[in-house]
Amino acid sequence: MSDKVLVTGGTGYIGSHTVVELQEAGYEVIVVDDLSNSGPEVLENIRKITGIKPAFSRFNLSDQAKTESFFNRHHDIRAIIHFAASKAVGESVEMPLHYYRNNLVSMLNILECQLKYGIPHMVFSSSCTVYGQPERLPVTEATPRKDAESPYGNTKRVNEDILRDAIQAYPQLRGIALRYFNPIGAHPTALIGELPLGVPQNLVPFITQTAAGLRDELKVFGNDYDTPDGSAIRDYINVVDLAKAHVVAIERLLQGKNKAGFEIFNLGTGQGSSVLEIVSAFEKVTGLQLNYRIVERRPGDIEKIWADTTLANQELGWKAEKGLEETLLSAWNWEKRIREL
Ligand code: WQD
């Protein structure tokens, strides 16, 4: 009988890739998602990849009654990977109360049910956004967090603290916060990938939609940063590598290998790439000429960040393996498939 893992937000971008890796590692997966930012076809595409369609329950985890009812029916869940959250930085500035309610109340509802039903383990989807613009690079897990640049980023920081304090108070709980840098790319089958609703906020889906002719041009937000080519630097990590790290984190908890009740790991490649380097790499690997224009900086953007991945490498025995070009090509293959190009 394989361990049953709940993946909240499991029809989303990182969630769906993590469901695939969990199933391929032999876990039984159940997905909860409100489908506010993804479609049910993702479940069928997961089945096409793994041969197993995950069990699925559609509701919003900020609804306490529905969350309680769900866990009452699923006592046998052994661990939870919690992705479900509203995640658009700009939107969170316009709708802070929605973001605080959705992202924080969901976390509280899940933790209360974990205590009630004896589900000890949670892996929480956090973000490098908690570091703001670090004073020193690369960023380690000991790098001080900064005031968030957005309500979205603040919900990540506060949820880390909620998880930490719950574990402190209730020793039967165990948790790992995974701080993602910039997830990009798609599954090699091109059956699952990043499908932003509306105009993409993130760089790589905007690039692939521009290349697909859905957008006239890519706007490069600033080339006057203190970086080699003037454009901002991020640590772009392949989404499949990221998903595999979640399986390792779950195994760490289920096998009791965690060295503290609450642990934090940076998930990046350790390599920074500028926006213009991403554009060049995309053009090189696809043979396409991308239409882009340098414009002014985007408010709230930081200048540069990339991870020190030593802790995840040493403690989790995990490191990112897929290179930038392979990853960008996977994003393009996904875009071509969904646009039937
Ligand atoms: C990357 C770089 C932009 C779009 C955010 C969140 C983070 C996580 C990932 C959710 C920046 C530049 C972008 C465009 C551009 N989100 N850019 N033109 O802002 O680093 O991180 O998304 O978990 O928490 O903070 O990612 O992809 O938006 O931007 O020039 O059309 O690309 O200025 O330098 P970001 P991004």
What features would you describe in this structure?
The chain has 341 residues and is α/β, with parallel strands linked by helices. The chain contains eleven helices and 13 strands. The strands form four sheets. The protein has a seven-stranded parallel sheet, sandwiched between helices. A two-stranded parallel sheet has the order 7-10. Strands 8-13 form a two-stranded parallel sheet. Helix 1 packs parallel to helix 2 and helix 5 runs parallel beside helix 6. The termini are far apart. Bound molecules: UDP-4-deoxy-4-formamido-beta-L-arabinopyranose (WQD).
Record the SSE blueprint:
Blueprint (H helix, E strand, L loop, with lengths): L3 E5 L4 H12 L3 E6 L7 H10 L4 E4 L5 H10 L3 E6 L6 H6 L1 H22 L3 E7 L23 H19 L4 E7 L1 E3 L18 H9 L6 E4 L11 E2 L1 E3 H16 L7 E6 L5 E2 H12 L5 E4 L14 H7 L7 H15 L3
Parallel strand pairs: 1-2, 1-4, 2-3, 4-5, 5-6, 6-11, 7-10, 8-13
Antiparallel strand pairs: 9-12
Helix pairs in contact: 1-2, 1-8, 3-5, 5-6, 7-11, 9-11
Bound molecules: UDP-4-deoxy-4-formamido-beta-L-arabinopyranose.
What is the structure about, briefly put?
The chain is an alpha/beta fold. It is built from eleven helices and 13 strands. The site of UDP-4-deoxy-4-formamido-beta-L-arabinopyranose has 18 residues, from helix 7 and strand 8.
